[in-house]
């Protein structure tokens, strides 16, 4: 019992060491060495399973092949897992071997080597093959790949024509887009290699000829793509073959075709492919199995969302008139909720507006990077119509659909305000003129320019007038008897002003008046 426990304890203690040794052995035994040529040097790169372990130390050296007495020289490291050999240190009449010593954390030293030719130029691909199956044309080829900075140029032409088409491939497998080939025509292709760093281009490989496959049913493959919704449709004669099953696949340019979800062994003639990425070029294959005829056939279509997607129209267009201006505001399309569509290009708002009348009205076009417009000098009692879409600033052929047409009628112009203003001005002028005359008369009456006689000045405004004491005659006037009117009862006798004759009692007015110092008239 104790021995078993001791054995287990030792096993647990040795397990990390065993894992480290196993990891080091497995990782370092799969080293890959690549060479890159530049105008002034040859660079070597290596890795272990596409990684460069930090815990591994290494040294690199090179020496001539076939020269046993030649000493190895150090390959100067430029960064981790790479080194560089200047052309000036190489003898171009010999080939070389690169030696790499890798030391693991456990102290184990592993040696790797690979030969290289300093005069080696880029070679064309070898073993170019064309496979035509299930409506696809797949090109495969092998190369003496030096590094990841290379790409491959595939050039093909129809056998009875000299016009060539080209395509770039990043790997040794490439599917020619179906819209580039005419079914059942013979084509020939060739491949060369381009090094993006040294800008060297190899010669072409020998031509390989093939016949483009016929495209069987289903027919009329078409993609109805609106914003982010992609619906693949096709035609099928159900009267002739009532029980078919369809399968839709996405064929990559670097591996096999993969079935699209919910589109495997379906009986409808539509597949929702909205899961496809907006960026990229997709080759879709629709295969059909005709149970009535016991046959299988396929057709292919190419779909490029960023170029083929139809963008929805602006959601709304609002118009308003204020004063002498027409204001228009255009809402963004629904598709702009997708960031890929919104950032596809620099979008402009394309507006068209015109006057609606029985005669042909001229259409005015305006474009702006803003969604609103202000149009000057509009006429009264006129109907204006407008519609809008979105266009790419850097691609005139890329635009959204047109939105609905909207119209608005401007009202008749009212001059009421102007008339009221003019009436106020006229009335003000008349009142001013009239007030000036009235003011002059009032001033003349109540505030005369000439002075009143001193007697008036003395009597006015002080006390009540006493006709017996105050004289109202001007100084230079002729002296007359002093008299006054006594507004008493009519039955009372007239009293002389001097009051000397009191013998006449109360008698009625005889109509005769007495003067002081004179007889009776």
From TrEMBL:
Domain Fibronectin type-III: 215-277
Transmembrane intervals: 416-435
The Interferon/interleukin receptor domain, residue ranges: 122-210, 309-409
Stretches the record annotates as Disordered: 495-521
A GO molecular function held by the record: cytokine receptor activity
Annotated GO CC locations: plasma membrane
Polar residues bias locations: 500-521
Keywords: Membrane, Signal, Transmembrane, Transmembrane helix
Keyword Zinc-finger: no
Domain of life: Eukaryota
Signal peptide: 1-22
UniProt keyword Signal present: yes
SUPFAM superfamilies, sorted: Fibronectin type III (SSF49265)
InterPro entries: FN3_dom, FN3_sf, Ig-like_fold, Interferon/interleukin_rcp_dom, Type-II_Cytokine-TF_Rcpt
This protein's name: Uncharacterized protein
């Amino acid at each position: 019992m104790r021995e078993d426990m001791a054995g287990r304890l030792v096993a647990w203690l040795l397990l990390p060491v065993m894992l480290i040794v196993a990891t080091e052995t497995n990782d370092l035994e799969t080293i890959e060495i690549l060479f890159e040529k530049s105008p002034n040097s040859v660079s070597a790169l290596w890795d272990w399973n596409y990684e460069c372990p930090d815990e591994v130390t290494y040294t690199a050296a090179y020496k001539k092949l076939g020269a046993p007495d030649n000493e190895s020289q150090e390959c100067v490291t430029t960064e981790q897992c790479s080194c560089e050999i200047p052309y000036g240190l190489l003898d171009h009449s010999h080939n070389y071997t690169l030696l790499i010593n890798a030391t693991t954390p456990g102290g184990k030293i592993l040696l790797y080597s690979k030969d290289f030719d300093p005069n080696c130029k880029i070679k064309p691909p070898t073993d170019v093959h064309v496979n035509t199956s299930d409506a696809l044309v797949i090109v495969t080829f092998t190369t003496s790949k030096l590094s990841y900075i290379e790409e491959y140029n595939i050039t093909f032409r129809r056998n009875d024509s000299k016009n060539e088409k080209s395509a770039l491939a990043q790997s040794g497998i490439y599917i020619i887009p179906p819209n580039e080939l005419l079914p059942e025509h013979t084509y020939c292709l060739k491949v060369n290699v381009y090094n993006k760093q040294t800008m060297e281009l190899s010669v072409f490989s020998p031509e390989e000829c093939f016949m483009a496959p016929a495209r069987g049913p289903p027919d009329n493959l078409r993609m109805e793509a609106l914003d982010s919704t992609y619906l693949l449709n096709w035609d099928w004669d159900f009267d002739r073959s009532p029980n078919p099953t369809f399968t839709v696949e996405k064929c990559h340019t670097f591996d096999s075709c993969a079935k699209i979800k919910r589109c495997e062994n379906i009986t409808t003639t539509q597949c929702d492919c909205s899961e496809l990425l907006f960026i990229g070029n997709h080759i879709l294959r629709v295969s059909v199995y005709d149970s009535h005829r016991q046959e299988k056939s396929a057709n292919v279509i190419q779909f490029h969302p960023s170029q083929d997607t139809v963008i929805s129209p602006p959601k709304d267009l609002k118009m308003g008139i204020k004063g002498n201006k027409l204001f228009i505001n255009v809402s963004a399309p629904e598709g702009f909720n997708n960031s890929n569509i919104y950032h596809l290009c620099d979008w402009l708002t394309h507006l068209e507006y015109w006057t609606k009348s029985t005669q042909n009205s001229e259409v005015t076009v305006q474009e702006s990077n803003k969604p609103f417009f202000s149009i000057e000098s509009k006429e009264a009692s006129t109907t204006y119509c407008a519609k809008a879409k979105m266009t790419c600033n850097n691609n005139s052929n890329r635009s959204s659909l047109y939105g609905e047409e909207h119209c608005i009628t401007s009202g008749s112009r009212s001059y009421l305000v102007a008339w009221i203003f003019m009436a106020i001005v006229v009335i003000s002028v008349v009142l001013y003129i009239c007030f000036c005359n009235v003011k002059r008369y009032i001033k003349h009456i109540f505030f005369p320019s000439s002075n009143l006689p001193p007697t008036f000045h003395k009597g006015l405004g002080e006390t009540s007038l006493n006709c017996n004491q105050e004289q109202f005659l001007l100084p230079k006037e002729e002296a007359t008897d002093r008299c006054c009117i006594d507004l008493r009862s009519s039955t009372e006798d007239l009293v002389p002003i001097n009051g000397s004759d009191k013998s006449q009692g109360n008698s009625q007015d005889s109509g005769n008046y007495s003067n002081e110092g004179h007889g009776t008239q």
